[in-house]
Amino acid sequence: MKNKMKGDIALVLPNGGLAGAVSAGFVYEICKTIGMEHFSIVYCYSVGVYVAPFGIAKQSETIEEVWRNYVDGSKLVNPFNLFTFDVKKALKIEYLKNLFERGSLSLNRKRFFSSKVKVVYVLMEHDTGKV
Question: In angstroms, rounded to a whole number, what is the distance separating the alpha carbons of residues 122 and 120?
Protein backbone atom coordinates (compact mmCIF):
# COMPACT_ATOMS: atom_id res chain seq x y z
CA MET A 1 0.00 0.00 0.00
CA LYS A 2 1.60 3.26 -1.09
CA ASN A 3 1.24 6.53 0.73
CA LYS A 4 -1.33 8.39 -1.37
CA MET A 5 -1.70 11.31 1.01
CA LYS A 6 0.27 14.47 0.45
CA GLY A 7 2.33 15.95 3.25
CA ASP A 8 3.75 14.43 6.38
CA ILE A 9 2.18 11.48 8.13
CA ALA A 10 3.23 11.03 11.73
CA LEU A 11 3.14 8.02 13.99
CA VAL A 12 3.08 8.49 17.77
CA LEU A 13 4.23 5.68 20.07
CA PRO A 14 3.10 6.82 23.50
CA ASN A 15 3.23 3.73 25.67
CA GLY A 16 5.61 3.22 28.56
CA GLY A 17 6.47 0.40 30.92
CA LEU A 18 4.78 -2.89 30.19
CA ALA A 19 2.20 -1.02 28.09
CA GLY A 20 5.03 -0.71 25.56
CA ALA A 21 3.83 -4.10 24.37
CA VAL A 22 0.98 -2.24 22.67
CA SER A 23 3.44 -0.13 20.68
CA ALA A 24 5.51 -3.21 19.86
CA GLY A 25 2.47 -5.06 18.52
CA PHE A 26 1.30 -1.98 16.65
CA VAL A 27 4.69 -1.48 14.96
CA TYR A 28 4.89 -5.18 14.15
CA GLU A 29 1.53 -5.07 12.35
CA ILE A 30 2.38 -1.80 10.57
CA CYS A 31 5.59 -3.34 9.27
CA LYS A 32 3.74 -6.42 8.03
CA THR A 33 1.05 -4.39 6.23
CA ILE A 34 2.25 -0.98 5.02
CA GLY A 35 5.79 -0.54 6.37
CA MET A 36 7.24 2.19 8.52
CA GLU A 37 8.32 4.14 5.42
CA HIS A 38 4.63 5.07 5.13
CA PHE A 39 5.35 7.60 7.88
CA SER A 40 7.57 10.62 7.45
CA ILE A 41 8.12 11.03 11.20
CA VAL A 42 7.75 8.95 14.35
CA TYR A 43 7.36 10.55 17.78
CA CYS A 44 8.12 8.34 20.73
CA TYR A 45 8.92 8.36 24.39
CA SER A 46 9.54 5.87 27.15
CA VAL A 47 9.65 2.33 25.78
CA GLY A 48 8.72 3.70 22.35
CA VAL A 49 12.35 4.80 21.96
CA TYR A 50 13.20 1.10 21.72
CA VAL A 51 10.24 0.10 19.57
CA ALA A 52 10.47 2.78 16.85
CA PRO A 53 14.05 2.12 15.69
CA PHE A 54 13.40 -1.60 15.25
CA GLY A 55 10.35 -0.91 13.10
CA ILE A 56 12.24 1.64 11.03
CA ALA A 57 15.17 -0.79 10.62
CA LYS A 58 12.69 -3.44 9.39
CA GLN A 59 13.27 -5.59 12.47
CA SER A 60 9.73 -5.67 13.78
CA GLU A 61 10.05 -9.42 14.44
CA THR A 62 12.86 -8.66 16.89
CA ILE A 63 10.91 -6.11 18.91
CA GLU A 64 7.85 -8.37 18.90
CA GLU A 65 10.01 -11.28 20.13
CA VAL A 66 11.45 -9.12 22.91
CA TRP A 67 8.00 -8.18 24.18
CA ARG A 68 6.67 -11.72 23.94
CA ASN A 69 9.65 -13.54 25.42
CA TYR A 70 11.89 -11.21 27.42
CA VAL A 71 9.94 -8.48 29.24
CA ASP A 72 6.95 -10.27 30.70
CA GLY A 73 6.08 -10.24 34.36
CA SER A 74 8.69 -8.81 36.71
CA LYS A 75 11.56 -8.97 34.19
CA LEU A 76 11.15 -5.28 33.28
CA VAL A 77 9.10 -3.95 36.18
CA ASN A 78 9.97 -4.44 39.82
CA PRO A 79 6.47 -4.77 41.34
CA PHE A 80 7.76 -4.10 44.85
CA ASN A 81 8.94 -0.63 43.83
CA LEU A 82 5.94 0.48 41.74
CA PHE A 83 4.61 2.77 44.42
CA THR A 84 7.91 4.49 45.20
CA PHE A 85 7.27 6.85 42.26
CA ASP A 86 10.94 6.43 41.42
CA VAL A 87 11.19 5.25 37.81
CA LYS A 88 14.78 4.10 38.31
CA LYS A 89 13.67 1.71 41.05
CA ALA A 90 10.43 0.57 39.40
CA LEU A 91 11.74 -0.13 35.89
CA LYS A 92 14.75 -2.29 35.18
CA ILE A 93 16.08 -0.13 32.35
CA GLU A 94 19.53 -1.74 32.51
CA TYR A 95 17.89 -5.10 31.82
CA LEU A 96 16.20 -3.69 28.71
CA LYS A 97 19.38 -1.96 27.58
CA ASN A 98 21.39 -5.17 28.00
CA LEU A 99 18.82 -7.15 26.02
CA PHE A 100 19.34 -4.97 22.96
CA GLU A 101 23.09 -5.37 23.15
CA ARG A 102 22.78 -9.10 22.45
CA GLY A 103 23.81 -10.12 18.95
CA SER A 104 20.47 -11.58 17.85
CA LEU A 105 18.46 -8.74 19.39
CA SER A 106 20.66 -5.83 18.41
CA LEU A 107 19.47 -3.03 16.16
CA ASN A 108 20.68 -2.89 12.56
CA ARG A 109 22.03 0.64 12.94
CA LYS A 110 22.94 0.96 9.27
CA ARG A 111 19.35 0.36 8.18
CA PHE A 112 18.00 2.63 10.89
CA PHE A 113 20.27 5.58 10.11
CA SER A 114 19.83 5.24 6.34
CA SER A 115 16.02 5.41 6.60
CA LYS A 116 14.20 8.54 5.46
CA VAL A 117 11.82 8.26 8.40
CA LYS A 118 12.61 10.91 11.02
CA VAL A 119 12.47 9.99 14.68
CA VAL A 120 11.76 12.44 17.47
CA TYR A 121 12.46 11.26 20.99
CA VAL A 122 10.31 13.14 23.46
CA LEU A 123 12.03 13.52 26.80
CA MET A 124 10.36 14.55 30.00
CA GLU A 125 11.77 15.71 33.30
CA HIS A 126 10.73 13.12 35.84
CA ASP A 127 10.32 15.56 38.73
CA THR A 128 8.42 18.32 36.89
CA GLY A 129 6.74 16.51 34.00
CA LYS A 130 7.98 19.20 31.62
CA VAL A 131 8.75 18.11 28.06
Answer: 6
